[in-house]
Design brief:
Blueprint lengths: L12 H6 L11 H6 L9 E6 L5 H15 L5 E4 L9 H9 L27 E2 L12 E4 L2 E4 L1 H24 L3 E7 L9 H14 L3 H8 L3 H10 L8 E7 L5 H5 L14 E10 L2 E11 L8 E7 L2 E3 L1
Parallel strand pairs: 1-7, 1-8, 2-3, 2-6, 6-7
Antiparallel strand pairs: 4-5, 8-9, 9-10, 10-11
Helix pairs in contact: 3-4, 5-7, 7-8
């Protein structure tokens, strides 16, 4: 079992107090970092749009794995796909980086023993959010219109007993980057369940004050106060990469893509698009930075390939 003192890492309170936080968060790809003026900004949300099979998962896994070198601890991977690991996170991670993601299964219900078994601290993959489709599929009529079905709310609430410790204990140990994959194509995102769940995850778990989150998980608080105080972290330093699958495939269509109601890209700090275009007698893949607030950025359209080494610009 992991105990107080076991979660000391590069992102612990000592690093926060020393001011050693880098001004940029590297994607793990130096050429992409150059296009981003040095990398992503710490604590921000970046959204990557592209059709299925275009290379988003490769980009996300490199970003998460690079945390081991850049932050002292690898990042986390949330898979929100309802069809199992169809993005092949485990196979790609092991083949490209010799990285065994491991599946997080540790669940902490109220007043239960909070600390995960030691082997779970090597599990950087979580897939307990399998819901897709329209919001109305999970709602029932009420006096004021529609509300979430109580059975679904209970199931969702139980999933949070797994999600919250997954985020909390890894961030307490030093992870500082999170990848969320498996967002399916949507015409009006505000009408779908996945953006709702991601918004809840982002605001109420990833960017929840570490002391508050720790007090919600480690009960009774008086018994675990020393651990909570010793493992505070700055949630504002956690950088999130959201991978969104689109129906559009050509790069030009993605660049011209309109922001629909509820589109997460509207509030993201950074937007990348990955698309394809015909180049002579072959199909080329291209990447473009569409938005990068608070930073210089390249307006170039860069060709890349997905190889045995992953996504290569």
């Amino acid at each position: 079992m992991i105990r107080p003192g076991d979660c000391q890492g590069a992102g612990s309170a000592s690093l926060l107090e020393s001011g050693a936080m880098a001004t940029r968060v590297s994607t793990g790809n130096s050429k992409l970092d150059d296009m981003l003026g040095g990398g992503l900004l710490p604590g921000t949300l970046a959204v990557v749009y592209g059709a299925t099979g275009i290379g988003k998962t490769h980009l996300g896994l490199r970003f998460a794995h690079h945390g081991g070198e850049a932050d002292g601890r690898a990042g986390l991977v949330f898979d929100m796909n309802a069809r199992g690991d169809s993005q092949q996170h485990h196979a790609y991670a092991e083949r490209l980086y010799d990285w065994r993601l491991g599946r997080w299964t540790h669940t902490v219900t109220p007043m239960a023993e909070p600390f995960p078994p030691a082997e779970q601290m090597g599990a950087h993959y979580c897939d307990v959010f399998p819901w897709v489709g329209k919001l109305r599929d999970y709602q029932v009529p009420s006096g004021d219109g529609l509300e979430f079905d109580w059975n679904w709310k209970a199931t969702y609430g139980h999933a949070l007993y797994t999600v919250r410790p997954f985020v909390y204990f890894h961030l307490a140990a030093g992870s500082r980057r999170i990848v969320v994959d498996g967002i399916e194509p949507m015409d009006v995102p505000a009408d779908y369940i996945q953006p709702y769940i991601f918004d809840e995850l982002y605001r109420k778990v990833i960017h929840r004050d570490s002391e508050t989150l720790g007090m919600e998980i480690c009960l009774p608080v008086w018994k675990h106060r020393a651990f909570i105080d010793a493992h505070r972290y700055d949630h504002a330093a956690v950088t999130t990469l959201l991978l969104v699958t689109t129906e559009e495939t050509p790069l030009e269509h993605l660049i011209a893509r309109k922001v629909a109601a509820g589109d997460i890209g509207a509030v993201a700090n950074t937007i990348l698009v990955l698309g394809s275009e015909r180049v002579g007698n072959r199909l080329g893949r291209f990447l473009c930075v569409v938005k990068h607030r608070g930073s210089a950025m390249s307006d170039a359209i860069a060709e890349y390939r997905v190889t045995e080494q992953g996504l290569t610009l």
